[in-house]
Write a structure and sequence with these properties.
The chain has seven helices and no strands. With 149 residues, it is mostly helical.
Length: 149
């Protein structure tokens, strides 16, 4: 074997081999840096670089953003997945559930805002109420005594 020849790689599937060939054409000299496998943390981002309408990648990225709490980004990815394939049920269901969750959160926030905007009533203890009533009766008795004199 000649030192300057690179041995041909063997891939577990025909699809991965085609992907690698396409990557070599798109990014000459950088094919190894862009080749992906399923254990790569940026697997779905790299899939979207190769195919912007990859439904599973769009859906999975939406799930990741939803788990992190970035609901607008998640909704955007779910919308893109549904546009790419309207029959992809996981994305349609996730989009509906996310909309419900956002609506519930907004409702809770609105109730919280309304509750904090209203004046806060301080609850009086039994001793405080009793002393307030006795003070009122004492003032009324004093006023009646003064007027009747």
């Amino acid at each position: 074997m000649n030192i300057h020849t690179v041995p041909k790689r063997s891939y577990p599937s025909h699809t991965r081999e085609k992907f690698y060939e396409r990557t070599k054409r798109l990014f000459p000299g950088h094919a190894n840096a862009t080749y992906i496998n399923t254990s790569d943390p940026a697997y779905y981002e790299k899939l979207l670089r190769a195919n912007r309408t990859h439904v599973r990648a769009l859906y999975e990225l939406g799930r990741q953003y939803e788990k992190q709490g970035f609901w607008r980004k998640a909704a955007d990815y779910y919308d893109r997945a549904v546009l790419a394939d309207p029959c992809f049920e996981p994305a349609v269901g996730a989009k509906i559930l996310l909309a419900r969750r956002r609506q519930q959160k907004e409702h809770i926030e609105a109730r919280t805002r309304a509750h904090t905007a209203s004046p806060v009533r301080k609850k009086l203890s039994l001793i405080q109420m009793t002393s307030a009533v006795l003070l009122g009766y004492t003032l009324l008795a004093t006023l009646a005594f003064v007027l009747l004199r």
